[in-house]
Amino acid sequence: MAEPLLSLTDLRAGYGPTQILQGISLDVAQGERLALIGRNGVGKTTLLATIMGLTTLHGGALNWNGAPIGKLAPHRRAALGLGLVPQTRDIFKSLTVEENLIAGLRGDASIEEAYDLFPRLKERRRNGGGQLSGGEQQMLSVARTLMGRPKLLMLDEPLEGLAPVICEMLMDVFERLAGDGRTTVILVEQHAGMALGFADRGVILEAGRIVHTGDAKTLRADAATLGRYLGVGLAD
Amino acid sequence: MTTLASILLDGVAYGMILFMISVGLTVTMGLMRVVNLAHGGFAMLGGAFTHWAMMSAGLPFPLAALAALIAVVILSVPMERVFYRPIYKMGELPQVLATIGITFLMIASVNYAMGSSLLSIPLPKVMSGAVDLGFRTLPTHRLYVLGAGVLVIVGLFVLIERTRFGIRLRAAVDHPGTAACLGIDTGRIFSLTFALGAGLAALGGILGAELLPIDAYYPLRYMILFLTVVAVGGMGSVAGSFVAALALGILDTAARYLFPEVGTIFFYLAMIVMLGLRPQGLLGRA
Amino acid sequence: MRSLVPFVVMLVVAVAAFYLFPYNLAFLTRVVITMILVLSLDLILGVAGVSTLGQAAMYGSGAYAAGLFAIHVWHDPLAGLAVGAAAGAVVAFVSGLFLTRAHGLTLLMLTIAVTEVLQEIANKFSAITGGTDGLGGIRMGRVLGIWKFDFVGRTGYIYAVCVLFVVVVVLKIVIGSPFGLALRGIGDSPARMRAIGTPVTRRLIAAYTLSGAVAGLAGAMAAQSTALVSLGVYDFQLSAEAMIMLILGGTGRLWGALIGTAVFMTVHQVASSVDPFNWLFVIGLLVLAVVYAVPRGLLGLPDEVKRLLRRLK
Amino acid sequence: MTAGLQVRGLNKAFGGLVVARDISLDLSPGDRKALIGPNGAGKSTFTNLITGILAPTSGSIQLDGRDIGSLSEAQRVKAGIAKTFQITTLFHSLTVRDNLRLPLLERRGLTARPFRRAAGDGGVEDEVESLLQQFRLTDVGDRVVQRLAYGQQRLVEMAMTLALRPRILILDEPAAGVPSSESPLIAEAIAGLPQDLAVLIIEHDMALVFKVAARIIVLVAGAILTEGTPAEIAADPRVRDLYLGAGHG
Amino acid sequence: KVGVVAPFSGPFAMYGKQFKDAIDVYVAEHGTKAGDHEVQFIYKDTGGPNPDTAKSVTQELLVKDGVNYLAGYTFTPNALAVAPLVDQAQVPTVIFNAATSIITTKSPYFVRTSFTTPQVAGPLADWAIAQGIKTVVTSVTDYGPGIDAEKGFVKEFEAKGGKIVDSIRMPIATSDFSPFMQRIKAAAPNALFTFIPAGPPAFAFVKSYSDNGLSAAGVQFLGTGDLDEETTLQGLGDAALGIHTSFPYSVAHESAMNTQFKADLAKVDPGAVANFASVGAYDGTEALYRMIAAGGTDGDAGLKAVLGASWESPRGPVSIDPKTHHITENMYIRVVAKDDKGQLINKEIETIKDVPDLGLVSK
Ligand SMILES: Nc1ncnc2c1ncn2[C@@H]1O[C@H](COP(=O)(O)OP(=O)(O)OP(=O)(O)O)[C@@H](O)[C@H]1O
Ligand SMILES: Nc1ncnc2c1ncn2[C@@H]1O[C@H](COP(=O)(O)OP(=O)(O)OP(=O)(O)O)[C@@H](O)[C@H]1O
Ligand SMILES: [Mg+2]
Ligand SMILES: [Mg+2]
Fold it and tell me: How confident is the model over E349-357, as a mean pLDDT?
């Protein structure tokens, strides 16, 4: 079997001395679409942040194409092809929309690609990043990460607070990116239904541990499991 | 009429010196957003090294100044690593405290090594004396400062507003973590920027020594002056500092020509009015 | 009842200091007076989150007011304190009208500017204030008409400690009150405070005025115990050191102000008498040690130690 | 005199960008209205205009027939208009209880009192506890807010606003970030609001909107596109185009 | 036992160091015994103009260390703050520096061995008149000592028929003096008179004087010796050449006593430069020794012995005026010149003998 793109072994990590992730083991294959779901505060954001190198690692191994990257600084991981769209969006307020995109620019990407995906951003290119509405910020945040041509795209609740049309549009964009098999996607979503509809595989997190892994379509239909770990009414 | 011309001339010349000695602070405090009360410390080190290089090593002024500049820049890198990096994330109060502590250490070091008396920096012939402008004379030194100031402002503007480095710097300041996720080496950017700020501080200290002479207590004596320029200009705005320095320079000079009795009150009232009207500074972002 | 423990500790320390250092009462009195000043800063900075470097404005005004009052009107110490506090409150109220709208660096600079203007005015009106020579000739009467200020400084010390006690108790009550809670709220999120209907600026002006009164009180005590007021009461350095002492001790809980002041002034005193030329090294290192090792001030030290121990386990 | 809120011809522009274009809207006691629209349409801006955080370029805002355009933010709260923030804005270093106490004390006009205990008032304490219970926050009542999960912070946000007992309540995306499992709780809380309260809810969670709103106003590019019952809105092709997308129908 | 109170730390630490060096020199020359009494010095730091600290350390010296004499005091407020203490404890106190006239009126136990500002400024006015200078612009730093100097100069100058064309009071925090120089230039007087404290402002002032071409325009520079005292003189650079100042002491003073003093100082502290503060302290120590020799621990007896006493000092002959408790001394008009090693010196060109404190005498 081919080497997984990303492989986590008994990963334990947290913020400073507080440990949030209690031993996560997970392999992600090249081109896979993974949905990461779970209640609030179970550690989804923390897991993505740990893969990106933003947390304190307490133990376990983190491999990228077989090479350990657990000790690399975030910007080095970005250079390897990891990309994260943070839950809090983190638009650079002192930069214009266009400069935000330039900040993420790497390699041969061009900001026109971003404007093609999100024409709205083009209209507001000269605006300060801080003046965007919530949805615009989310578009910018996604587009900015795409400017780095990531091989692994980690999306942390990208649909939160977005209008349904925008959600659909974003999901389309994600479909397109994942569709060619070159971009691997990890999607964190509260709307389990939508996430599982998009993904090949679903992973459920609880209290810093993986409590379920399985085929997304099967899981989507498995009301009992969803109900147990996510509570009622999560399946959209 | 001549008075007016004189006020403008002296005001601009003085303002340019104010700009030169505070622009380094605009970089560290304005752009990097760390309340850097130790700015004057770097300026003083620049002056002290120059003094030492001229007096003890016998170097001519340009070489001594260059050597001092390089020394301060080199010194600033480990200092940024050790002292500043941990405080970026802390609030403004710990930053005030830490940088005051650093200032104390710098003062104590210079005091220990060179004593507490004036550390003079004699200017070479070409820079001293006065040029005749017809209706009056102007110290030659001011022309050099004027030139240096213009170079610095243009250079910084291009660097910060027009280059990839500037964008990355501003990004790294806004959200260091996210900037790192985008592949920006924030540590390196901060090191470089801080070194730039320290270098500018040293340059300002050396060039401004004619008016603000160097001694061990320099950093505390002029701290308020540096801060005023940055605050009135607007945090993070190099152009703002420039405008503020000129405005303050002209106002202060005018007050001295026209009603010296009012003294420093005028300067501070002007500052209160300016900050009252524009709390974010003249060119600061709201 | 547990909340009384610190008060008891404070009393014990004050009494112990009195007997252990009978020859340093003048210094101890200065420490106590500075504590009052730092407490005033804690209210506005620690609790309400307003960073100011201008406590000297109120301290100095209180000192001059008390000094002039003693010379020209009445030499009763307590009346002098009241006058000093009133002067501090007035200065704070008037400057607070525009200061409380600013924040960040702008606020720091405005508070500095106010102080500098006052200092310059005091310098200008040297006929009244004595200018650079200082306002001398202050002779204080007996405290409550009973206790005379003695040469060794016993009365002065006990008097200062009593005032400190009153100040701490009053400020404790204020901090635990709805008003105090509102100030904490403002310190955390002025936007939210406005959204729940609080007139934020008015509350801040009130807090600043109260803080100014306490600072004025400290200034008045200083004037009374030194019997001279110099332009130095308006020094920027005073405000800056007050801030250092407060952060050193830990903000927002009053006890930090007391601990920070005691530690800073003691270290300063010892270091500058051991090696007057290089004591600044010691102070600088102390300050840095606090920032990097106990960022929440000495008050946070126990927590920090606990955390460390837990990590070692 | 008309009871409730009347907004007439409200305009607002940031530089060249018009974010409110001649908006008129009524909120009467008992109303349950929702404001929806694409991101950046100007919904949050609209709430900021109503609550006084921003000043309109032109237009009038009346409460019970009285013009409140010149009132400060705090005065409008006193007059009965309260809102939750789209981005949680809490007292992060205070406990949940203190976060709730503050609006309760403010409502009673006590926050200027320096010489009584903040945590002593029986009436206030009872209300704190009942709010905690209503939002299932009792267990974390003594926790400092910044240690709370985001979803719980959203609940505190709601609870604080309700503590003000407003007559006009504006909820800016109350469910954003709240786990779906707890979103019924929010619907429940809204349903349990006093009947004579006027509520304007801004939300992208259509399930929630359709559940709680009797009428829906659609804002597009700063202007009101249309207004109607949920069924009318869901059927409107323009709304579907601009906002709902194909998924709803 | 003698308690010495001075700034040993902070921006003014120089004073403390000068005091201590001078005392050490005196002790090296005269031994630790004054008459039959062993003399011991205890040093306390004030950190600068801090009346609070000055008072509390003095109190400590009196109460804890039980000193019989006090000495030092660099700043007027510090000296004034201890006046009540000194009175109460009846301890003779020798002021080494603080230069406001009124100090010695505040306590009968004060004796001063430095100088007062009017004492320096008055003779300079006389000399200016003698040089044929008729018009002067005064420009002084706008604070107590500056105003004292201005008054002292103006009074004497006008009394002798000179004319003050303009009087400028410059804010303490001035760093750019160009405006004042332009104004002075416009007034075109024969000379300018200035008082400005030593340190950064004096440096900038002198620089500004030469850069703005005032000397070229024929405006002579007259000042009190504060601004070019010896520890900062070299720092002023060539810009200072040719300026005239008056002061009670110049390192360049030619006398056997001064040569000896400088040699001994070099032994005690090789890097030290003698200046007004060190002679003030040196003569102060002389006064202390005289008091101790005569009175031992009895302060009143000691005090009596020194009032009216006169002796030869490195600065020339001095005596203590029994009425004012202040030192009567020669004033020297000096010009800044270069010595054979290229170092700047204050070259004495004229002596005005036995000047009392003009500030008090005139009142
Ligand atoms: N900076 C931090 N310091 C300490 N603890 C944190 C920090 N950020 C988050 N936590 C805690 O870590 C735990 C996991 O948080 P995380 O944000 O990873 O959850 P999540 O699954 O992403 O939740 P959500 O769905 O709300 O985004 C929570 O208990 C949270 O309180
Ligand atoms: N201070 C400002 N200066 C300039 N433009 C602003 C400012 N505040 C908001 N805007 C712009 O106004 C528009 C409306 O913003 P608003 O936040 O009201 O949108 P919204 O409808 O609430 O969107 P969302 O559903 O995404 O929260 C946006 O395009 C935004 O960029
Ligand atoms: Mg998350
Ligand atoms: Mg919004």
Answer: 81
Q: What does the DSSP assignment read for E112-178?
A: E-S--HHHHHHHHHHHHHHTT--EEEEEEESSHHHHHHHHHHHHHHHHTT-EEEEEEEE-TT----H
Q: How far A55 CA lies from chain C's nearest CA (Å)?
A: 17
pLDDT computed for residue D180 by the predictor: 62
Please report, for the domain that includes residue D198, its CATH number: 3.40.50.300
Chain D partners of C177 at a C-beta cutoff of 8 Å?
113-118
Ligand 2, atom 13: closest residue by C-alpha: D40
Backbone angles phi, psi at A125, to 5 degrees: -60, -30
Range of the domain at B78: 2-115+129-277
Q: Where are the beta strands (DSSP E) in D107-146?
A: none
Strands D198-202 and E244-247 come out as unpaired
Helix (H) or strand (E) holding A210: strand A209-215
Q: How far is C303 from chain A (nearest CA, A)?
A: 14
Q: Which domain holds residue D132?
A: 5-246
Do A77 and A157 share a domain, yes or no? yes
Would you say residue D246 has pLDDT above 80?
no
Q: CA dihedral defined by A63, A68, A71, A72, rounded to 10 degrees?
A: -80
In which residue are the tokens 């002098």 written?
A: C80
Question: What are the chain E neighbours of C134 within 8 Å (beta carbons)?
Answer: 51, 76-77, 80-81
Do A210 and A156 reside in the same domain of the chain? yes
Nearest to E52 among C139, C226, C273 (CB): C226
- Of C30, C34, C7, C41, nearest to C210 by C-alpha is C41
Q: What is the number of structural domains in chain B? A: 1
CB contact under 8 A, E179 and B253: yes
A145/A156 same-domain check: no
Residues A140, A221: one domain? Answer: no
Tell the residue number behind the tokens 């530089």, with chain if given.
D15
pLDDT over 80 (residue B133): no
Does B176 contact A at CB distance below 8 Å?
no
**Counting beta carbons within 10 angstroms of the beta carbon of residue D137, is it exposed (0 to 12), middle (13 to 18) or buried (19 or more)?**
buried
* Shortest-distance Cα residue to atom 26 of ligand 1: A40
Chain A residues contacting B via beta carbons under 8 Å: 52-54, 73-75, 78-79, 83-84, 86, 90, 92-95, 99-100, 102-104, 106, 128, 144-145, 147-148
pLDDT for the residue C203: 93
Ligand nearest to the CA of A17: 1
Under 8 Å between Cβ of C291 and B94: yes
The reported pTM is: 0.86
Number of cross-chain residue pairs from A and C with Cβ atoms under 8 Å apart: 3
Range of the domain at A53: 29-58+71-81+150-229
> Per-residue pLDDT tens for E320-339?
888 888 888 888 888 888 88
What residues have CB less than 8 Å from D68, skipping those under 6 apart? D52, D61, D62, D75, D76, D79, D81
- Check pLDDT > 80 for residue D245: no
Nearest chain C alpha carbon to D83: C195
Ligand 2 centroid to C249 CA: how many Å?
43
CB contact (8 A) between residue E207 and residue B210: yes
CATH number at residue B84: 1.10.3470
Q: What share of chain D is helix, strand, coil (3-state, %, to 5)?
A: 40, 25, 35
pLDDT digits (tens, 9 = 90+) for C268-280: 888 877 777 778 8
Residue C112 at interface with chain B, using a CB cutoff of 8 Å: yes
pLDDT digits (tens, 9 = 90+) for E47-88: 888 888 888 888 888 888 888 888 888 888 888 888 888 888
Q: How far apart are CA E37 and CA A198, in angstroms?
A: 100
For residues A143 and A156, membership in a common domain is answered with no
ipTM of the complex: 0.84
At D39, the pLDDT band (50, 70, 90 cuts) reads: confident
The predicted pLDDT at position C185 comes to 92
CATH code at A186?
Answer: 3.40.50.300
